[in-house]
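Entry 14. Ran structure prediction on the chain below.
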Amino acid sequence: IRADIGTGQIVWRTPSPPGNLYSSRPAVNGSLVVLYSSGVQAYDRETGNLVSQAPAIDCFGDSSQPLAIDTANQAYIYSRSCLAKFNLNTNQVDWFVTGMGFPTPSITDTLIFANIGGELRALDKETGEVLWTALAGPSPRTPFNIVSTLNHVFVPTAHGMSAIDLQTHQEVWS
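Output, structure tokens:
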């Protein structure tokens, strides 16, 4: 459903895709609304028409959700077991990494930060390649978010929080 924020009037309504949408939230860019439910579905933001669909990959389950969609129509989908980049122009999975867990990754213009087994990994957003790592402490068992700023990445851990400097890749405090 898309509603006009000023009036509350429904602009469009489209049938839900198959699968479980209970825990999925949409990712939105200037032209698309992206959902994950047994695969990736991209809808035209203005009309609600389905414009792209990509199949599910084995590591995703019902708790998968979009992190972001960029202006090139690349969708980044996260679950507790993997992270993937879906190319909505070709309906293909460009890359995926496994071994995820809590907390939810953070995405910037060029990087994705994920805590995998107590190690903060900075992944290249385009290729999924690990560019650098830093010790961050064991992952928490609750769904907190990693937060990235211009200078630091703040990583929730089982014992609190770690701040990692983006220039040195070293822990500043915990």
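The mean pLDDT is 84. Will compare against last week's run tomorrow.
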